[in-house]
């Protein structure tokens, strides 16, 4: 039996999904969730080898992780493997990770809306600033004013090139 492989199908599929759903005039939140699920469904098998707790917590803390897991499981079952050890049990991995990290990620305290309300214009530095402040939050900082000052400082430093 020949093995069909399409490396990168997750990234290509995510862009196709985004284009098709946008063209079909689906709401932006649906387009974002579905394309993110397609984009991330192959990352599940890499989580088995991941050593960083923050990466595992961030990945398995996604709001739509249940959809990502279902698509990853379907993709895995649909693959033709020459050897049974080529397959992995998606649900077993998820249970293992959830047993190891029983904490679900909290919602970010600082959002893009907070930055806009503070007078900043959306731009490329927003995503990085929000990621940075969410990491600060995961490391124990829950002071909204401090996190907002940090995010605004990040945007000011890295957003103006």
Describe the protein in words:
The protein has helices at 9-23, 28-40, 43-47, 53-60, 65-78, 90-100, 112-117, 124-138, 144-159. It has 161 residues and is mainly alpha-helical. It folds into 2 domains: 9-100, no CATH class; 112-159, no CATH class. Helix 1 (9-23) runs antiparallel to helix 2 and helix 8 (124-138) runs antiparallel to helix 9.
Number of helices: 9
Using the CA coordinates, give the radius of gyration.
19 Å
Largest sheet: none
User: Topology as H/E string?
Assistant: HHHHHHHHH
Determine the fraction of residues in helical runs and give it as a percent range.
Answer: 55-70%
Percent strand equals: under 5%
Structural class of the helix and strand makeup? mainly alpha
SSE topology:
Layout lengths: L8 H15 L4 H13 L2 H5 L5 H8 L4 H14 L11 H11 L11 H6 L6 H15 L5 H16 L2
Helix pairs in contact: 1-2, 2-5, 8-9
Question: TL;DR?
Answer:
With 161 residues, this protein is mainly α.
Pick out its properties:
single chain; 161 residues; mainly alpha; 2 domains; 9 helices; 64% helix; globular
């Amino acid at each position: 039996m020949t093995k069909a492989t399409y490396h990168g199908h997750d990234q290509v599929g995510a862009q196709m999904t985004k284009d098709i759903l946008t063209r079909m005039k689906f709401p932006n939140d649906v387009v974002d969730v579905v394309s993110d699920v397609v984009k991330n469904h192959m990352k599940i098998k890499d989580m088995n080898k991941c050593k960083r707790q923050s990466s595992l917590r961030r990945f398995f803390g996604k709001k739509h992780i249940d959809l990502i897991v279902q698509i990853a499981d379907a993709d895995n079952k649909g693959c033709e493997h020459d050897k049974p050890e080529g397959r992995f049990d998606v649900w077993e991995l998820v249970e293992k990770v959830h047993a190891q990290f029983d904490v679900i990620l909290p919602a970010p305290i600082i959002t893009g809306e907070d930055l806009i309300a503070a007078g900043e214009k959306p731009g490329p530095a927003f995503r990085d600033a929000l990621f940075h402040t969410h990491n600060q939050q995961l490391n124990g900082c829950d002071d909204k004013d401090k996190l907002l000052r940090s995010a605004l400082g990040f945007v000011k430093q890295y957003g103006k090139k």
